[in-house]
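In the current project phase, work has continued on tokenised descriptions of protein folds. One protein thus recorded appears below exactly as we store it.

——
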Amino acid sequence: MAPSVDLKVFGRTGRKISSIGMGTYYDPAWIATAFLGWRRGTRTKIEAIKTGLGVGMTLIDTAEIYQSEPLVAKAIQDWKREDLFIATKVWSNHLRRDDLFRSLDRSLRRLGVRYVDLYQVHFPNPRVPIAETMGAMEELVSQGKIASIGVSNFSFQQTQEANAALRKSQLASVQVRYSLMDRAIESAILPYCDKEGIGVLAYYPLGHGKLIRDSRLDESAKRYGKSRAQISLNWLASKPSVFPIPRASSESHVKENRGAAGWGIDPEDIGKLDSAFGL
């Protein structure tokens, strides 16, 4: 069996965190009702995050638009802040310097923390110069309100431009759609991140649930005694730069996701999966 996939260093931050994290994006309907003050299933979601923390999943990803920052705050309140890696995101209409500062302050209040480990631009905004946004991010680093800077849903060219706009630091991460079924980043973004020491947060790591129903995973699942989801997540986490962030929606799902770490798929079997899914 290949080396264990468990804790990994996150990009150039030097922080060693769980190789599989927890995402807190639920669905558009949940977000819409949360804006109106109704967060359905709140207790279930908080308990799911707590369960993940209890089994060592220290990486939590959220965003101001998700409306889940207050849930994260409740889930982490009994944990030492320094033991956690909390990432949040600023929405694309808040990328001007002063808007970004205000957005972060609101996120910090909702999360109940003094700083976040990673602050990410959720989507690029062509109307705001990336240099202005990255300059503001670096100011927040110097103020101790954020520890590192990331981008999300940026193209390869946009990622390069964002990294080049940083004067005192470097991008810590990119957040992109990545799974066995969606491998577009392998052409340019992933090699660039590997070369530059940039972490990759992989969202939709189970292909919007399609991989859970995909029989092409059955041979590996049987060989390793794991579920289709666990094979899919381990395949991602076996890549040095990649940290999958499956949704933390229930305790059972979080426990299953955690079971995707602590072991590794043999290189030969990695090759078979690559071939089965089109590489």
Observations:
- The longest helix spans residues 97-111.
